[in-house]
Design brief:
homodimer; 434 Repressor (Amino-terminal Domain); 6% strand; 5 helices; 54% helix; 69 residues; DNA-binding; mainly alpha
Chain lengths: 69, 69
DNA sequence: GCTAAATGTAAAGCTTACTTTACTCTATTC
DNA sequence: GAATAGAGTAAAGTAAGCTTTACATTTAGC
C-alpha cells in the first residue's frame, strides 16, 4: 500500500518529530510509514486524515490485485 | 471505534462466513469486528469499503476524544 | 422438539504495528 | 570546524490484529 504522508507532511511544513507528536506516536513510526515498511492501524489512518484535513483514501492508495495483509 | 459492518452485511444478505470468505479472513475476524472487540487493519478496512461499495468513513466511525490505539 | 444453519465464546499461537534506545549521516549555521 | 536539527538504520521488546480449533447458544424450518 502506497501513501502520500511525506508529501502531505512537507506541505504542512512539519518535521517527522512534530507530526509524530501530533499523532501521539513515535518518530520511528512516521519514518516506517513514510518508507512504507508497514501499514498504519486504521486509528492512525483516521488521525492522519484529520491532521491533513482529507479522507483516508486521499492519503493511502490501495491496489486491489496485490493481496496484502 | 464503532462500525456498521453487521448492518451493511445484512443489507447485502451475507452470512459472516460468506463475508469472511470474500475478504479472505476467518469468520472469527468478522465476529470480532462486528462485536467491536478490536479494529481492523487498514487493508481490511479498504477491502470492506470495496465490498460494500462505499468509503471507509462510511463504515467506521472514529470519535476524536477517545484516544484509542 | 429435532435438526441444521448462523452466530457466539474461549484460548493458544502467529504476524504485524508500534515503542524504545542507541547510533549514523547530511546540512546548516555560528 | 564544532554544534545542532532533521532524517535514517537496526534490533529487541510490547501490543494488537488475525488464525485455528473446539465447543456453546440462538434461530428457523420441518
Amino acid at each position: 500500500m502506497k501513501n502520500r504522508i511525506k508529501e502531505l507532511r512537507a506541505k504542512k511544513d512539519l518535521t517527522q518529530d512534530q507530526l509524530a507528536e501530533q499523532l501521539g506516536v513515535s518518530r520511528q513510526t512516521i519514518i516506517s510509514l513514510e518508507r512504507e515498511r508497514y501499514n498504519p492501524s486504521i486509528i492512525l489512518a483516521f488521525k492522519l486524515a484529520h491532521i491533513f484535513n482529507c479522507k483516508i483514501e486521499d492519503i493511502f492508495i490501495y491496489e486491489e490485485e496485490k493481496d496484502e495483509k
